[in-house]
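Retro notes (design track)

What went well: tokenization of the new backbones is finally stable.
What didn't: we kept losing track of which sequence belonged to which structure.
Fix going forward: every design gets posted as structure first, then sequence, in one message. First example under the new rule, 255 residues:
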């Protein structure tokens, strides 16, 4: 079985996931062509090879070139349905956005259909989420494992105002998933990163017994004395692993 292990020693964000997948071999031209199947314009993707604390990594920058609107969950689901993307990519992307919408609705105590995503509805977050699903599908990954996730502390400014870290939506998304606190005043896990990994990963914990074929590094945007990269191991499961997460929970989360 082809698997991936997400080693989130410095957190996880949408652009870090996308960068790591490109570093693992997802062709940039292929990715851009697939993303063009979305009825979405007004953005430009720049991919760079960089060094982060002497580690070679891939940096993704998404620049908005046209004025964008705030999108509701229904707007984003409609955008995905009208796209020419593969059915599985549409389904998984919709699952991620739906889980994110449920988390935002819970925090603000409103109906999920009334959620306007603001930052998460912006073009860069749509590209991060859909692009990550495209990349995982292209690499043929059948099962995703993920390390426990680190929480920084402090505050972050967003459209909702000043929020504590980890952001409330991030915490809501990661209920039931192992996390731990670190002494860093940074947003290490973003809502977009949390939504992607909480939806797509089947197991959280230590790295399983696996035969590693490739390792990819995706760089984050925060400047730090620590290597701000996401490391993803790609390979084959070495032996049958005991499940560490209830499959019914995964099925329910993805509905």
């Amino acid at each position: 079985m082809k698997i991936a292990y997400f080693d989130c020693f410095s957190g996880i964000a949408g652009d870090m996931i996308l960068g790591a997948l490109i570093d693992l071999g997802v062709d940039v031209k292929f990715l851009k062509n697939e993303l063009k199947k979305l009825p979405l314009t007004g953005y430009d993707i720049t991919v760079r090879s960089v060094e982060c604390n002497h580690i070679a990594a891939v940096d993704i920058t998404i620049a908005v070139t046209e004025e964008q609107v705030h999108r509701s969950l229904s707007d984003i689901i409609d955008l995905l349905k009208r796209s020419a993307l593969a059915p599985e990519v549409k389904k998984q992307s919709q699952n991620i956005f739906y889980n994110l919408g449920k988390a935002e609705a819970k925090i603000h105590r409103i109906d999920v259909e009334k959620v306007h995503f603001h930052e998460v509805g912006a073009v860069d977050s749509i590209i991060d989420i859909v692009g990550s699903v495209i990349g995982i599908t292209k690499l043929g990954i059948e099962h995703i494992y993920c390390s426990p996730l680190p929480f920084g502390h402090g505050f972050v400014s967003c459209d909702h105002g000043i929020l504590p870290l980890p952001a409330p939506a991030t915490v809501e998304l990661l209920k039931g998933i192992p996390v731990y606190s670190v002494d860093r005043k940074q947003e290490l896990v973003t809502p977009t990163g949390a939504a992607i990994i909480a939806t797509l990963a089947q197991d959280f914990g230590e790295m399983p017994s696996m035969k590693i074929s490739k390792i990819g590094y995706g760089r984050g945007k925060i400047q730090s004395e620590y290597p701000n990269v996401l490391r993803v191991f790609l390979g084959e499961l070495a032996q049958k692993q005991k499940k560490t997460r209830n499959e019914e929970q995964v099925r329910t989360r993805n509905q």
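Added context from the reviewer: The chain is about 35% helix and 25% strand.
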